[in-house]
Amino acid sequence: MVALVDVNNFYVSCERLFCPALCGQPVVVLSNNDGCVVARSNEAKALHIQMGQPVFEIRDLIRQHRVHVFSSNYALYGDLSARVMNTLRQFTPALEVYSVDESFLDLHGMERFDLHTHALSIRRTVLRWVGVPVSVGVAPTKVLAKLANRLAKKDAHGQGVRLLRGNWCNELQAVEVGDVWGIGRQSAALLQRYGIRTAYDLTQANEAWVRRHLTVTGLRIKKELEGLPCIELETDVPNKKNIGTSRSFREPLTKASELAEALADFAARCGEKLRSQRSSAASLTAFVQTNHLAANEPQYARSLTVTFGTPTDSTLQLVKGAKLALEKIFHEGYRYKRAGVLLSGLTPTGQGQTSLFDTTDHEKHQRLMATLDQVNARFGRNTLRSAAQTLDATARLTHQSRLSPAYTTRWQDLLTVHVGYKSGFPADIWEPLKD
Question: What confidence tens digit (pLDDT) does each residue in 40-66 have?
């Protein structure tokens, strides 16, 4: 048996944890630069606010219904996610962290126990230890567990838990095929054209036909819906094959020096990610582009790939590569809205092919990067940085007018409890949304 534990409206639940007055209120969380809705409370969903909807389209709705709006607080969300995952490890010998708010738990060998009670215990413990509500779906396979979790969220009387055991045909008939985990939009449209409209219909389809039209991946999903485990838990997180960092700027950049600083920041961040998985990159691709939504402005987009003689994980070499690429792709007269860096050709550090003409002292770079990472881990990111980087990347890259405090990761934001203090919101909480 497998359990899928999913935090309900995760970003919203994190905000409500430290501001209980938000409970029962419509709440949305916005993406980078406060552009689009990336999380909604159930009350916000009832107002027909859509996932991914640009905030400028719902300004009137926000004011009319007094919707509470927050910028994404990734430091807070990441810390609470880690706490949830550590709590879940108390209930299983093997756990797969599927996303920031979802995990699969291996319950193999527990079939003779009361799994419904076990699932309720998981839910209550996470709520008590971390403070966020979760839904738990338990089933023989990962796909069915995902489906059971979906049903648990919709069942108002199920206490946030759903167990699929024995005959689950009725549940499969109530789920559209496009809502099955692993079935994308195009595959769903294809299946519907052939009369396969529900998850149950997919289980009744011919296996050879499913494999021909949906490949072996679709066949595995079909068998998982039938209760035959085909998708293993991935308890070891595989190294990434590519690493990238890109951002949209608050205001378009026009100077080469400004873009050079931004790309240096992105390359440095990629270097951190690279060293965290003990990999080195053989090539770096830098790109810049203007705002394609600004129809009255000239448009330009360009990228260039720089290849290193020997794969590297050194921030200094990555920043140098980004600078070389920018010199060739930058053109005056454009307002650049977005830029980024992508590392590819990743190999384990020390196992890449060395160039015959490489004169770089790689051991010296490794010692320097180890010291840089140790200092930044202790005193905060970018305490030590390349001179090519900007001094205040946050001010240029992000627009977060509704950012909540980092309650659990920054000492100055530590929550203060005032005895006898009546909590509430300032009257101008919606003012930042003015046109």
Answer: 999 999 999 899 888 888 888 889 889
Ramachandran region, residue 109 (left: φ > 0; alpha: ψ -120 to 50; beta: rest): left
Cross-strand partners of 288: 302, 339
- Beta partners for residue 303, in sequence order: 287
pLDDT of the residue at 280: 92
Reported residue count of the chain is: 435
| Residue 340: predicted pLDDT | 93
Percentage of residues in the chain having pLDDT higher than 70: 93
Mean pLDDT by 10 residues, the chain (435 residues): 92 91 91 84 91 87 90 89 93 90 89 86 93 92 91 81 86 88 89 90 90 90 90 80 88 90 93 92 94 86 92 92 94 92 90 72 86 85 84 61 80 75 48 49
Residue 426 is predicted with a pLDDT of: 47
d(CA 367, CA 175): 55
SS3 per residue for the chain: CEEEEEECCHHHHHHHHCCHHHCCCCEEEECHHHCEEEEECHHHHHCCCCCCCEHHHHHHHHHHHCCEEEECCHHHHHHHHHHHHHHHHHHCCCEEEEECCEEEEECCCCCCCCHHHHHHHHHHHHHHHCCCCEEEEEECCHHHHHHHHHHHHHCCCCCCEEECCCCCHHHHHCCEHHHCCCCCHHHHHHHHHCCCCEHHHHHHCCHHHHHHHHHHHHHHHHHHHCCCCCCCCCCCCCCCCCEEEEEEEEEEECCHHHHHHHHHHHHHHHHHHHHHCCEEEEEEEEEEEECCCCCCCCCCEEEEEEEEEEEECCHHHHHHHHHHHHHHHCCCCCCEEEEEEEEECCEECCCCCCCCCCCCCHHHHHHHHHHHHHHHHHHCCCCCCCCCCCCCHHHHHCCCCCCCCCCCCCHHHCCCCCCCCCCCCCCCCCHHHCC
Report the alpha-carbon distance of residue 62 to residue 47 in Å, rounded: 10
